[in-house]
Amino acid sequence: MTHSKTIGLAFGALLASTALAGAETLTIATVNNGDMIRMQKLTGAFTEANPDIDVEWVTMEENVLRQKVTTDIATKGGQYDIMTIGTYEVPIWSKQGWLVPLEFDDSYDVDDLLPAIRDGLTTDGELYAAPFYGESSMVMYRTDLMEEAGLEMPDAPTWDFIKQAAEAMTDKENEVYGICLRGKAGWGENMAFLSAMANSYGARWFDEEWNPQFDGEAWKATLTDYVDLMQNYGPPGASSNGFNENLALFQTGKCGMWIDATVAASFVTNPDESQVADKVGFALAPDKGLGKRSNWLWAWNLGIPAGSAKTEAAQKFIAWATSKDYAELVASEEGWANVPPGTRKSLYENPEYQEAAPFAEMTLESINAADPTNPAVDPVPYVGVQFVAIPEFQGIGTAVGQQFSAALAGSVSVDQALQTSQMLTQREMMKGGYIK
Amino acid sequence: MATLHTRSSARLMLTPSVILLLCWMIVPLAMTLYFSFLRYNLLMPGTEEWIGFLNYQFFVEDPAFWASLINTLLLVGGTLLITVVGGTFLAILLDQPFFGQGIVRLLVIAPFFVMPTVSALVWKNMLMHPVNGLFAWVARAFGAQPVDWLAEVPLLSVTIIVSWAWLPFATLIILTALQSLDQDQKEAAEMDGAGIFSIFWHITLPHLARALTVVVLIETIFLLSVFAEIFVTTNGGPGTESTNLTYLIYMQALLFYDAGAASAGGVIAIILANIVAIFLIRMIGKNLEA
Amino acid sequence: MARTVTTNRKLVFTVIGWAIGLTLFFPILWTFLTSFKTEGEAIATPPSFLFFDWTLENYLTVNDRSDYFRHAINSVVISLGSTALGLLVAIPAAWSMAFTPTKRTKDILMWMLSTKMLPAVGVLVPITLIFRDTGLMDTRTGLVIVLMLMNLPIIVWMLFTYFKEIPGEILEAARMDGATLGKEIIYVLAPMAVPGIASTLLLNIILAWNEAFWTVLLTTNNAAPLTAMIAQYSSPEGLFWSKLSAASMLAIAPILVMGWFSQKQLVRGLTFGAVK
Fold first, then answer.
1. CATH topology of domain B54-288
2. B96: left (phi over 0), alpha (psi -120 to 50) or beta
């Protein structure tokens, strides 16, 4: 024990001395998505240009990462210098004063950021996090199956067409299911999809007095159609399918259509991974003719927790990782198709990118079609398309998501699921003091 | 026999671990107890205030609470049943001489060494998945409709995953006890013409009583707080069909970040666990007397 | 005649035994095989069992991305450290409980065990605050302490049941010969207690190695063990089956090998006094 302690001390002293002589170390927390892993791989380019800064990565699966960074920032643990956070967290955290406002010089070109994304990260005119990549949702479909069914996908389909196509494409004997949608319970899983779908059906989470709206007709129509669609034309096990499960299904040719994140486009068209890479088409997320489409808006962003002693170095890193130059670095190392999408106008104006990414146009259009401050047909008191930017939402969204996945699995009826959701949301909103 | 001297020295030696445990129990427990009476959401600092029993009221009034209690009991009970019955059977099997016995034994105990997160991920994605999973492939090979494990029988699926990890533990303990069984007694009974089942019932089983008690006690302790297996596979769903008490508290703590409600849930869990403990001691405590 | 019966019987048991053994081991075997496949092959139907292009790529990727050895060393230090510390505290306690029991000994034992039933997530906030204020966040020391305390009740109880089986007369005799308390423990008790201590040690190393709540939430980088490494590979965007399998194999291999080699010692003391 003492022996190892001495060694430990000696070791510690050694580390301390190198730290003094050398660099400031940034600890960066990030999710384990492909684009971030690529950033981790390319860190060398940053540390070479900034020899006085060292970078240490903490890469985690999304849910675990969120638990860790939220606990850390709420208890002022100070473990991280840069955190990867979603568009859900940024407005809530910045209001609490937990994030450092970012300032960039002219070469960064802040005005190049897509306005829909940038707005979501801005509180009182200050940018509190820089977008690393952004996404909306859209329809991905199999061109060959669509042709076989004798149908043609419009650029902006309706839900009625989706249903018709799903029916025509389904061939359960050969394990081809007309439509794959998220069913796994979670505020960022099935509820992301269903909240966005509900928007197009004229439903909303809360009215202007924060009363939950699950007892309304619009939600009932949404959930009824969703359950109907999935039980008739969806794959088995849909109620535990999230993004990844559906991706695997689509890549192995088992889905006719899949409505999900735009970032999936690069996975399903990658011939190394996907068996259907050359047979994928894209369309905007469906609507119901009410003026709102069912696409969401999300971005993973880099922010600096207030209280970090290394703000300057952290800013430097963020400026690097979200810059135009970084996009070019990725392009030169791994090709344009792998550049993190959905954050900058310039990327979509780049002919090389348009060439390499057949889904570029549809992605941009989807992102531009989303309006976080005005997501539903009727007015709402909250910000967020597929989420409600209040601290209680993670919990409420997951509990409601559990009810909806139960309805999908058939263990409760649609009416029951909506009734329970209404009650539990009301309870939480009362507890939170939103309604009396 | 115990002199004053040994007694006091015994107490002295007992002290460090009791003090440590006391600190471990008392400090966080006192904090938990205190938080449970506060409105305390981590995401809304500055709104903390004393709200009496409101957190408890909300926690108990949650319809998911009763469902989670029943699920907890079913999960613990089901796993105990599978592991005790299966473990006894496996132990008897492994007690017979056969070719490659040593290797089979290694195969059987292996699941106990696997991290819960890993085993849950493997079962969910590679075995139970209704499209890509191996079970589905086997079912289709026999022309049957694949079972959608995690949606149709979520609690049973979790029970199976948990049982897989704990079966080796039960097997090992029962096997050790079995090997100490007096062979002469068994042979004498065989001479008297007793059948296999009668020998098992009248000689083997009573001999195993104490080992089984130990299995039940230790497993209960760990099974009451099963979490990773649920978190990874079903997220407590569909609905609340696979939500146990630990998962419910997790939701309060790490989804709502409601430290008040989570603390109240923690206190309730401790009270319930102690009721179970008292019950267990009553039921099987006499077996623990040497 | 009798001989053929036993041979037949042995054959039957061989078949049953191997069938069950392989079934129970199958999930691990399957993970092992998948870890050598490409991502595409990992989700292919029908699945390929042995005839695929074996590749080491997943292992290289995992090691490249997450510095396996640092995580592994943390796991070793944390599980060994917490177990050693736990034994240090528990041996005297269990000894005194076993040999000079009082009326309340059993109550104390049961109370200790009931502390194990407290769900970890219920005390998350208190522990996080304590760790923050004591500077234990992301340190191996912090994890050693937490895991030691988590497993202490089990350690004390296992040792207690084992020590109880040691006949008191031997100690009496030693005491008659004028042995002091210390000598009594070192020369008389210890040799008899070794099997029990060994299996307690092994079981607790396993439990500490696999603990995945505190070890993930209380670490960032410096002290992150293998459980935290797994969190890097569970469900990212895109296909991950074979990389996850490789990471899983790397995470469980050390403890599996240790468990296999020491199974005799593990079993010998796992009796909890159940053998008379």
1. MetI-like fold (1.10.3720)
2. beta
